[in-house]
């Protein structure tokens, strides 16, 4: 693990240069050392499509223990302060293994099937229409803050029965959890903010769950309170953890999909024109946005035993990061991987993961992305970037813009 570039990669990793455009670094790392030990992340980095796909469903790699591994990067002696955060995060489905994961996914899975997502189309279209009405009179807008964030946050909030006026609270909680789980360079301050937000979200959601027990409504919170199979139910702790997971998995990633997809189109006028000419291409176009610059760049696991990946020995307890963004640009799987092609077929990207931890909200994200992007292109066909100087959130696992300023007129 000692090539010249490998040492250089850790010098660049987690820097502003990396966050601005990680793909050249992924390409070089995949060519030089596709199974690479990063001192910066204290983890193995996988960048080949074949390795990432296999690791995502490898039973020797578990999700349990990931939070302990993140807390282990904090200064010695500070970990006990975060006992409450550890307990809460370990109740989330994303950080469990079978049989706990199987049970939790079975209990909530029905709310996120493709059929369930398709039933929300009219509601999603209405939310998109309202969001676009709010910006229609403006000359310049930030499509991240004023549109891409608005849609998924409203959808998740309305699914759970959370009033729209509380969305800013929910975003704060979600952002704090995302920075802890996805930031790479975890600090005590980041962990403290996450723990505080989890505590606030828990109090809020427990009160909401109690209200739904007394008076059920037609929303996901009522369904989660009542969901049962063979006498099994979500515990109160599991219910709250599931809702917090939906916050940061449900709209942070879809916000990124919409913003990144619109940016890709504006940077590729030929593809924009092709989609304008044939709006029916929106389905494969969203799949290509998911491949080309996906909002989920990394998933991670912890090794449950010693084994080999390629010619590298992975030790029990090692943290393994599967770089989705690198796998989706692997030329062995995708011809001309750095070219945006909204008609790409086949397009077997791994944007939503693979195996038992594949994204439960994938069908909903696809529907939201298709409706949001197709509608804004229809309403504002002259939309263009104001500036190519873009700022990206400094997150390892999530790739999304801080802002996307555009002119809505020619």
How much of the polypeptide forms β-strand, as a percent range?
5-15%
* Helix percent band: 40-55%
Low-confidence stretches: 1-6
CATH architecture of the domain at 75-296 and 345-407: Orthogonal Bundle
- CATH superfamily label of the domain at 75-296 and 345-407: Cytochrome P450
Radius of gyration in whole Å, from Cα? Answer: 21 Å
Number of beta strands: 12
What spatial form do the alpha-carbon principal axes imply? Answer: globular
> So what's the CATH class of the domain at 75-296 and 345-407?
Mainly Alpha
The helix/strand class is alpha+beta
- Biggest sheet strand order reads 1-2-10-7-3
Q: Note the total helix count.
A: 20
The CATH topology of the domain at 75-296 and 345-407 is: Cytochrome p450
Mean of residue pLDDT values? 90
N-C termini distance: 51 Å
Instruction: Profile the largest sheet.
Output: 5 strands, mixed
What does this structure look like?
The protein is an alpha+beta fold and 410 residues long. It has a domain at 75-296 and 345-407: Cytochrome p450 (Orthogonal Bundle), CATH 1.10.630.10. The protein contains 20 helices and twelve strands. It has helices at 4-12, 16-20, 23-32, 49-56, 66-71, 83-89, 100-108, 114-118, 121-135, 144-148, 150-160, 167-182, 188-214, 220-226, 236-250, 252-266, 269-277, 282-292, 324-327, 362-379, and strands spanning 35-38, 43-46, 61-62, 140-142, 228-229, 232-233, 298-303, 307-309, 312-314, 319-323, 384-385, 405-407. A five-stranded mixed sheet has the order 1-2-10-7-3. Strands 4-12-11 form a three-stranded antiparallel sheet. It starts with a helix and ends with a strand.
